[in-house]
From TrEMBL:
NCBIfam families in UniProt: TIGR00149_YjbQ (TIGR00149)
UniProt cross-references to SUPFAM superfamilies, sorted A to Z: YjbQ-like
Entry's family note: Belongs to the UPF0047 family.
Pfam families: YjbQ (PF01894)
InterPro entries per the UniProt record, alphabetical: UPF0047_YjbQ-like, YjbQ-like_sf
Protein name, as recorded: Secondary thiamine-phosphate synthase enzyme
Source organism of the structure: Variibacter gotjawalensis
């Protein structure tokens, strides 16, 4: 086990922006490029990027970005955990409404990514994804916020 040398930076910037996008319905949308563009525009050097989705039927995750079969299998797993036909009481917006809330609860509405030397510290096969849990397309908003140094 080895800990790298410690780098210290004084936080002198808080930058925020909202990404608005249209989903195509249930599935993963890679927003890594948009997160990197935001970081570049914010001139972030060392700190943390927080992404937060303002919805209860869509979520965010960091997942493998190499093999699309992973995302297909993840959707299958979520569907098995919260199927539309399970007799849910809350069906205000249709049979996929309550399962979408459960899937959001099982994943997350925010992620934090360390930033070093102006780059997201994602692993080789990692990407930042919005997961749409509803069947129909939706307009979604993700807030990006960088806290750190320039």
């Amino acid at each position: 086990m080895r800990l790298s040398s410690v780098r210290v930076a004084t936080a002198n910037v808080v930058a925020s922006a909202t990404l608005t996008l249209e989903t195509r319905g249930q599935g993963f949308t890679d927003i890594t490029r948009e997160a990197r563009a935001f970081l570049s525009d914010a001139e972030g050097r060392d700190g943390v990027l927080v992404a937060f989705i303002r919805h209860t039927s869509a979520s965010l995750t960091i997942q493998e970005n190499a093999d699309p079969d992973v995302r297909i299998d993840l959707l299958t797993a979520l569907e098995r955990l919260a199927p539309a036909n399970a007799g849910w009481v809350h069906t205000t917006e249709g049979p996929d409404d309550m399962p979408a809330h459960i899937k959001t609860m099982l994943s997350d509405v925010s992620v934090a990514i360390p930033v070093g030397d102006g780059k997201l510290s994602l692993g080789t096969w990692q990407g930042l994804y919005l997961i749409e849990h509803r069947t129909a397309p939706h307009r979604r908003e993700v807030i990006f916020q960088f806290v750190g140094s320039r």
